[in-house]
# Entry
Amino acid sequence: MTDSAVVTVSALWAVIAGTLLCGFAVFAVTLDAGLSARAHGAGGGWFTLPSRLARLLRQRRRTTVAADTLLWRVGGIGMFIGAFLMVAVIPLGRWTLADLDVGVVWFNTIDVLVWALVWLTGWGANSTHSLVGGYRFLAHGLAYELPLMFALVAPAIAAGSLRVGAVASAQQDDVWFVVWMPVAFLIYLIGVMGFSVWGPFAAALATDIAGGAGAELSAVDRLVFHAGRYLFLAAGAAFSVPLFLGGGAGPWLPAWAWVLIKTLVVLAVLVWLRRKVPLLRPDRFMSIGWTILLPAIVVQDLVVSVVAVWKG
Amino acid sequence: MLIGIAFWVLAVIAVATGLAVFVVNSMARATYALAVSFIAVGGQILLLQQNYLGLITILMMVMEMAVMAVYMVMFMGMNPALMPMDMTHGKKTAIGASVGAFVVLAGGALLVPWPDRRGGPPDDLTHALGLEIMDGKMLVMAVVGAVMVATIVAGVVLAAGRTRYDRFGDDLRQRGSNGASLGGAQK
# Structure
């Protein structure tokens, strides 16, 4: 199945796509701040984003002794850029920036880059806590990445294509993939939280190691690194829409609006989960990943494959 | 034109970062210089319109370098970033072998009479590539893949016995495991 129902638009629209992604990230930051404020019995939180932004932009950059500045900066800047590359293959209703024939693999490649980026951020500062954070992320990565890869495989098998547009259109007049691949969807969301260093997977940045990989980050370096995490979270939420949630399918509203609404809902759930799920210790999650998630997702893939063969 | 420029830029990056692996004196820089070199090679494969192979090359090499960083700490027993070190050993043999290989391959590429293109690329390159590599042995390969994964997992399970680094809970005088060292799943 190589035909695809999406239209590739001019590269200038990348500006709009980037703006939308930033908008989602702003939503995530604000929602998180609002929930934080409420958890402390206060209200508001709406002013958090501009104040954080202003503070970090005005802050003077700190540095450490014998820091590997090149690798350090590459880590932070890479985190900021990565999510923008991800959204290039996500169709917004009928339009997409790049109708890549291996769009799912493209997404996977970018999310693997995070392994290098977080570790480089932890390494570059030449600081113990920072380095421990970097390795914590790799330990989490070793446990979430394989299940995530197999989770990405499931919709691709069902649609018979690695093209994101084709995966979305395979669900147009059918049940959404989330209905008969719930395990793959859940593990996909776990993976998104993993590569965004978010919620239960924020051990690399945890307070018990003084902020871990981000311990020595300051000023604009801190800004791009953490903005990158929110952008990745938003991009991950957006990618779940064509993959599992039927793309632009939905009544009354146009397809692009449904994509945005679904993205917003998934993103809100991910942000909300941060307060509901405890931090997962990397060593403990290692055995959860390898003894529960991996077998579960392989069985899910088997079911999907059998159904795909049976349907012809 | 654009593809020509991209080719040369990627080629220079690939060779330059490949050389950098032997020039830099930090293990982290050497590791990631190699990763950048492979990313550039992956980019070259993308230029050949083998999207799947190109992306998989980038994916695997970046992941591999990240995992190498884990081994770095597991086996080095020190923080190599803090100690500048010579990244090479067996220099003469290595230089001889790599220059020799480069001359043979580059000479081959220049001297071999390249055939003219016959036919066009198929619609679905990834699918065609899979058929070309595995052909009638698709089922065997699929089964072997699963067996290989099982072998790797079993190997790791056998190798990763309990060691003195395991944690026996907060009380360090405690003799046996309270389950914490096994991770959350088995508790």
Summary: Chain A touches chain B at residues 2, 66, 68, 70-71, 74, 100-102, 105-106, 108-109, 112-113, 115-116, 119-120, 123, 126, 131, 134-135, 138-139, 141-142, 145, 162, 281, 283-288, 290-292 (CB under 8 Å). Chain A has a mean pLDDT of 89. Residues 7-311 of chain A form one domain.
